[in-house]
Amino acid sequence: MKLGAAAALVSSALLLTAACGSDDNSGLPGAVDFSADHIECAPSGSLLASGSSAQANAMEVWVNTYQANCDNSQINYKATGSGAGIQEFLQGRTAFAGSDSLLGDQELADSRAVCRDGGQAIHLPMAAGPIAIGYNLPGVDDLVLDAPTLALIFDSGITRWNDPAIAALNPGADLPDLPITAFHRSDGSGTTDNLTQYLHGSAPEQWPYEPSKNWTGKGGQAADGSSGLVGMVQQNAGAIAYFELSYAHQNGISTVAIDTGAPEPVEVSVENASSAIAAGEVVGTGGDLALELDYATREPGAYPIVLVTYEIICDKGNNPGTLDLTRAFLGYAAGEEGQGALAEIDYAPIPDGIIEQVRDRVAGMS
């Protein structure tokens, strides 16, 4: 069934179940068009998937668009968090899992017990989210920071906004003599994991801690979830925190441009995040498309603080009863229309050279 332009928020098919330690990136910005020009539909069926809530908005658009254009298909995605999604997938309870982190060696080995015909799990990068550094600094609309300075700010090594290190990056700015209040997540999250991947990868001397979903820096104040960090930035002059770009846009929060060593500081945007992903490298083998990002990239226009969400599937499928629908749905999500919908909701589409490989892996499920 092909519907006309349907502009509505329909979420009955998407179960946005909160989970401890998951990102709460839910709530689409206004009405969203769930029409599509062309989707290769599976004959019929239903499937269940779960995992990353950082991709909840993308899944809401993908699920509702697919169902609006394909008869007799029911797709339920539970945004329970990456860890819970992986666990359910490895128990054979879901067709695929969404994850902001890569499977470990033991998890890959465990996947062979649920994957068909001697197959195993592979990672398919399907969406990316720029992580914005938001701040509240009266009188300063354009702020530039670099990795060493950010690391020191979040580790309580720089404590006032007129510090010489910040002033050197912002010549001519009227920086106030105001205390810095750095906020971080109180709950474990993929957003924290990816921010600390950037800090450790780009400024290891200033951020000596290993990347982690749980905050390991010194000092600062904590808040629960990205929405909690947004509230703290809004309420406190001198505050700085990190959250998905959609939160900054929806709440009118100023964001930091990153001095990466490129000729110009890089603004946070979906386009610039896609450029950073394009500069990364596929390190998976045997059909796996796990990525290694270059957090220290100096590529012009590449925004380095990004979160990549993977759909984790069995390379040969894990359930014959859901194989056709899984292949059709993920084929749409990885296709031009599915990827094209991402930028409208503050996600970064996966670059062409990588997403074409994703399409090949999805089509090859058999």
From TrEMBL:
PROSITE patterns: PROKAR_LIPOPROTEIN. It holds the Pfam family PBP_like_2. Keywords: Phosphate transport, Signal, Transport. It comes from the Bacteria. The keyword RNA-binding does not apply. Residues 1-18 form the signal peptide. The keyword Repeat does not apply. InterPro entries: ABC_phos-bd_PstS (IPR005673), PBP_domain (IPR024370), Phosphate-bind_PstS (IPR050962). Residues 44-337 form the PBP domain. Transmembrane segments: none annotated. NCBIfam families: 3a0107s03 (TIGR00975). Belongs to the PstS family. This is Phosphate-binding protein. It comes from Streptomyces carpaticus. The gene is pstS.
